[in-house]
């Protein structure tokens, strides 16, 4: 899962970026409104954390432009003031949730998990496919109850597939959702990640659909 963080305060932005990275997300950090708008308009984010008080173009304008252009990714708005009027304005502009500063990082992460879950149309906090379980809260993966240790990229590939079960996901789509913007992207590495995942999971849940990509399905 790949997220866009739009936040101009360096220390808070760094804290959020570290927390999101630690939770297994690939993160792009935009430090002003123009950059946030541009990134969110062109890249397929799984969710966005959007500070309303951004230099250049404010967060509300960024959000309105995305929604007017049909960009439907889940957006969690951060507001410094936290008055009811700010929340209403944010929600009316197309935000899916909001959080008033200061907040606990745990709450931000929980709200993001909830938004991503809803976008994937799942209600269970733990994702399951046959004997494979992935818990986005802890980042733990298990097969038949036995824990499996994955690298961060293997985890991202599996998490993305598990949020889109039964659907063919192309290599290009996986690349866009597991790497941050500035990361060196190589589509051959996806095959390597999938091969390692299959070996580590030991069960056939990732099927190759020739010429198209991969599909997660129960054994
Ligand atoms: Ca700000």
Class derived from helix and strand content:
alpha/beta
Gyration radius, to the nearest Å?
A: 18 Å
Low-confidence blocks of residues = none
Q: For the terminal residues, how far apart are their CA atoms?
A: 24 Å
Order of helices and strands: EHEHEHEHEHEEEEHEHHEE
Q: What is the global morphology?
A: globular
Strand order of the largest sheet: 2-1-3-4-5
Helical percent range? 40-55%
Strand content: 15-25%
Residue-averaged pLDDT, rounded?
Answer: 93
Small molecules bound: calcium ion
The major beta sheet can be summarized as: 5 strands, parallel
How many beta strands in the DSSP annotation? 12
Write up this protein:
The structure is a single chain. This protein is α/β, with parallel strands linked by helices and about 220 residues long. Helices cover about 40% and strands about 20% of the residues. The chain contains 8 helices and 12 strands. The strands form 3 sheets. The protein has a 5-stranded parallel β-sheet with strand order 2-1-3-4-5, sandwiched between helices. The chain has a 4-stranded antiparallel β-sheet with strand order 6-7-8-9, covered by helices on one side. Strands 10-12-11 form a 3-stranded antiparallel β-sheet. Strand 4, helix 4 (about 85-90) and strand 5 form a beta-alpha-beta unit. The radius of gyration is 18 Å and the shape is globular. It starts with a strand and ends with a strand. The model has no long low-confidence stretch (mean pLDDT about 95). It binds calcium ion (CA). Calcium ion binds near residues 9, 53 and 54.
């Amino acid at each position: 899962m790949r997220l866009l963080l739009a936040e101009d305060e360096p220390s808070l932005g760094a804290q959020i970026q570290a927390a999101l990275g630690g939770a297994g997300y690939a993160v792009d950090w935009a430090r002003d409104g123009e950059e946030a708008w541009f990134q969110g308009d062109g890249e397929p984010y799984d969710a966005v954390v959007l500070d309303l008080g951004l230099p250049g173009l404010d967060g509300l304008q960024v959000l309105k432009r995305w929604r007017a252009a049909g960009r439907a990714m889940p957006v969690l708005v951060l507001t410094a003031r936290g008055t009811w009027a700010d929340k209403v304005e944010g929600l009316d502009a197309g935000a899916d949730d909001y959080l008033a500063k200061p907040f606990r990082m745990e709450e931000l992460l929980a709200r993001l998990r909830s938004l991503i879950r809803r976008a994937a149309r799942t209600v269970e906090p733990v994702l399951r496919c046959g004997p494979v379980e992935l818990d986005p809260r802890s980042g733990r993966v298990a097969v038949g109850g036995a824990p499996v240790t994955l690298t961060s990229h293997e985890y991202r590939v599996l998490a993305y597939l598990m949020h889109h079960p039964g659907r063919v996901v192309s290599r290009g789509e996986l690349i866009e959702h597991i790497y941050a913007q500035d990361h060196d992207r190589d589509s051959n590495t996806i095959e390597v990640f999938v091969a390692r995942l299959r070996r580590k999971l030991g069960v056939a849940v990732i099927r190759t659909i020739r010429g198209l990509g991969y599909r997660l399905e129960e054994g």
